[in-house]
Amino acid sequence: MQAQVPFDKRLKRIVRRHDKMSNGVVKSINSDGLIVAKPRLYRPRFPLKGLLAVLFLGFLFKGFLFAYLGEAEYIERVAALQGGSVLEQAGAWVMQPDPVTVIAADGIATILPQN
Predict the structure, then answer these.
(1) DSSP characters for 2-17?
(2) What is the pLDDT of residues 10-67, one digit of tens each?
(3) Close Cβ partners of 67 (under 8 Å, ≥ 6 residues apart)
(4) Strand, coil or helix: what is 110?
(5) Rounded Cα–Cα distance for residues 89 and 59 (Å)
(6) Which residue, of 2, 79, 97, 101, has the greatest Cβ tally within 10 A?
(7) Are 63 and 108 in contact (CB under 8 A)?
C-alpha cells in the first residue's frame, strides 16, 4: 500500500490540472521541442461595457422624465424626495438635474408630443 501513495498523489494532481483546463489551454514549446499544454489562468474581468450601458440608460431615463414632466415639476418632485427617508434622499441625489440630463431632455423633447 505504501507504493500506491505517490501514484495516487500524481493522479490527483493530473486530474486537478485537467479540470483547470476547462477554462482553456495555453500551448507552449519547450527548448527541447516538446509541446506542453497548461491551463489558462482565469482572471475575472469587470463588465465595463455593462456599467457604461447602465449609466447611459440611467441618464436617458432621467432626461425622459425631465422632458416629460418639465423643469419645474421635475425639480419639485426631487425636492419632495429630499425630505423623505435616507433611501429617498439618495434617490433625490441621483435624480438631481445635471448637464447630461438637460442635454438628453432637450434631445428627447424634440421627439415627445407637446402637451
Answers:
(1) TTHHHHHHHHHHHHHH
(2) 889 888 888 888 778 888 899 999 998 888 877 778 889 999 999 999 999 999 999 9
(3) 104, 105, 106, 108, 109, 112
(4) coil
(5) 18
(6) 101
(7) yes
